[in-house]
Amino acid sequence: MELRDIEIFLTLAQELHFGRTAERLHITTSRVSQAIKKQERRIGAPLFDRTSRTVRLTPVGEQLYHRLSAGYLQIMDGIEEVKGTVNGVTGTLNVGTIGPHSLLMKDAFDLFHARHPGARLQHREVQPPSPLDLLRSGEVDVAHLWLPVREPDLTIGPLTHTSQVLLMVSASHPYARRDSVCLEDFGDCAVVQGKSIPAYMEEVFNPYRTPSGRLVARGPAVSTWQEALNVVASGQAVAGVTAEITEFYPWPSLVYLPIGDAEPVQWAYVWRSGHETPLIRAFAQAVTDSRQAGTHMSGS
Q: pTM here?
């Protein structure tokens, strides 16, 4: 079985969709079908059950997937490791960050560039209302996210810093004249809501219930950070944010209030499990060393 055919099989087993598999591998759907049929003839049994609506692995397909996936990753890691030994760490690493964090991580980025001049960091903006989308689509290799992240297909890498949580309200909101708020105060507000975000990640900043058990109303659903800013500034909702945001978005129409009983939030780099490369490992080491050297972001 050729390595490319193995890659096609493993990708289809993950995507369970011929079109998405073809897009991910930059090939045609007919090439995917041909590779699977070829493997099924070689095995002597169907690897997938196909209907007009669904694709799923057969028991034989499940067995083959578990046997091949570990070996495939070892082969690819071995190739990348040898390439790294010969040429140093090279290539482009797509890094996803939220809002101003790409600026605040400058020391870690500079250390990585100094160690690996043949490598390049390509920056993408992660939207808080859908923090996992770019990772899941493969558009970024690593993403800088707040914790917890409890997804079985994602690996949590080095911690970067801890943030205090503030409440962002409009300048006309009744809370705007206060010095601080508490989590119970959320029960008298509507909070912005994301469109594609695990509930346990959303409630870190915008809880679903107050400490006494009152439901917290949900306001408009937003798709981007800019939309969240506009919704809050217009008085339609409030939103929990991290303290570093205040330095970059000092809008006169926004007020940031400490939340006295909110737990601090930890941040870390996250990547897809099974997709760790020498480039990702080198980047993670630079982040760790930068933090340990005390040259990391302010407030860490």
A: 0.69
